[in-house]
Amino acid sequence: MDICETCEAGKYASSTGFSSCSICPSGKYNPDPASNPALHATCEACLPGKFNDDDGNNILNHDDFGDCRLCDAGTFSNDNSGALRCTICQEGISPAGASSCSTCPVGNECVDGVVSATCPAGKYSNGLTTRCEACPAKYKCPGGTDHIACTPGSYSASTSQAKCTSCEPGKFQPDEAKNKCDECTPGHFCPASSSIPISCDTGSTFQPDTSAIKCKICMNCAPGYEMSRECTLTSDRVCSQCAAGKFSLGAGSCKACQEGEYSSADRTGCIAHCNPGEIPNSDDSGCDRCSKGKYAAYGAGSCIYCDNEGEYADYEGSPICKTAPAGHKPSADRTSIEICPKNTFSIGANTACTTCPPGAHSQAGASACERCRQYETFSKTDSLCACEKSFERINDACSCKAGETLMGTSCQPCERGKWKSSAGVEGCSRCEETLKGSITVNEGSSTESACKCPKGAYDANKGECVPVVEGMSDEVVGMTLQSAQVEPGFWRTGADSSDIRECPKIGACIGGNSTQLCGDGHTGHYCSVCIDGYTKDSFSMCHECAQANRNLIIAIATVLVLAGLVAFLVHKLKKRIKKSEKSKNLWKKMRNGLKVIFASAQITAGLPKVIPNLDLPKSFEKAVDAMSITNLNFFAALPFGCWYGDFDYYNHALGMIFPVIISCGLLTIFGIIFNARRQQCFTVVLAITYLTLPSITTIISGLFPCEAFDDDSIHLRSDYQISCER
Description:
This protein is α+β, with helices and mostly antiparallel strands. Among the domains are: 1-102; 372-452, Tumor Necrosis Factor Receptor, subunit A, domain 2; 543-723, no CATH class. It is 18% helix and 21% strand. The chain is built from 7 helices and 61 strands. Strand 41 (376-379) and strand 42 form a beta hairpin. The longest helix has 32 residues, at 545-576. It starts with 10 loop residues before the first strand and ends with a strand.
């Protein structure tokens, strides 16, 4: 017979007769460890706010109270019978383990059941919704709160406002939650942020303007006036002048004068006699003022004309006559004063202006006359003191202008060799004091810079004029070391150089100042270096490459024609001359003659090197230039400077010497090896040596001499573009 057993923890058996226990379903658990069968008839349900999503699959998820897990934040469970899962909170919020949803906190936005953000300024939430909404008009939303109604004295005219706007001065708002303020009531005033109009004080203040921020004070009637209308809240008090025979001291009604008195014109009192400057009128009802030009003392019965010396009266009701001040006189009708004209004066209290004595003058309104200052004379034309002849008015005084000095009684120009830069009568400065030996070109020099060295001298920056050196122009006045004019055929290193040197090739140096000393195509020391696009001829003159190429073609053609002619003549002569002893001697003489002609051509071609400034006709120069080919110095005859920009004297020497050495060496070795050709090889070597010896000797001798200059540079004399310092 089978024995029934108590279900283990996590299981249950709901009725008798079961052969096995079942795992608790989802949302439930059973923690009893098989101790009491009564506890296993059912499973306990998870409390609200918790859930168990295991649907009887794993006993370990149902054997303990902790198997019921808390609902996540944003979800909830209110199932008392045990929840399989938690429900998402659609509206409001729920913390972890919540059994229900609560409303979203005021001033916050909630998403998926949790607070996601605080409402920004201009928006709000009232806990009834989960979203922040735009603040409505009439309210303010400072952020993080519900919408707040605008208080009295403020308003909000549009939505999304973080704060309410205070009522402007002249407006008010007594209620909450308004979108505008009302105009202030007449008889009241409204300062900024007013919630109610403030009433003016009856009888003392008023205000008709609805935009005012304070009340006006009611006017008090002035003496001589009485109130005709009282001050109200919206209008000022109205005053009327007292009638004749009455008076008022102000702030009251008019009172009648006593018998025998009459009121003053301004109705401020009653008088028995007229005031000074007045006389009784015809009906004694008042007083009349004296007209201009007259006066009346207190109690006078008539006005008196101002006719004493210098007297006048310039307003009605004058109690006394005034006296004309200095520089003035009374008008003819004694009603005003007039300014004394030019060249007259008045010390005051005079009826007329006095004319200035001879030699004196005055401006209009003068109290005294003045005499002209030193170097001035009075001009009757314009009635002013004018400068004497040769003087000029400088800084309100007559003086000698710059470049002139006082000699005797007049201004005279500074003598040659002197100058004066300022106005005045002091003497002129001598040029010798600033630059010894200098002069001025003209009289009347006004600047120190007018002192210049005379012809034949220049300013060497030593404080004196020194004689020009050879090669410097002696026809220029005011020449300085920097502006020195260099004669054609001479050259210097720069504007600060006094070392004037004669150019090896006069035609290359055109003279002038330091900005341009070299002719076209020339530059460098002694103007002996060709610029880009130019090349030298046999006379060391730079020519454009296009012209040099044309001359080269002509020279080559000339040489070829001459060589062809000589070859033709030699060929013809060989045919005619028989192979006799006499013929051999004749041929030998002819060869010697050709050698002499060839040597003469070589000497002629070398003349430009020996005599650089040799003056020859242009046509003969071209012939000499063409003869340079006879020296077999192809680097001098051909325009290599146009073909190779960096071609200098060293390249020239290497290109001339090494080919000769190599060719002679190879011919010598060839002659030693081949005995049959030895004589011919040695003859060719001798011919090459004979033909190139003059050129090579000249080139080698030019590799060493250098020349120093005052710009601290040393250059090779054969090619001044080569520095001997490298």
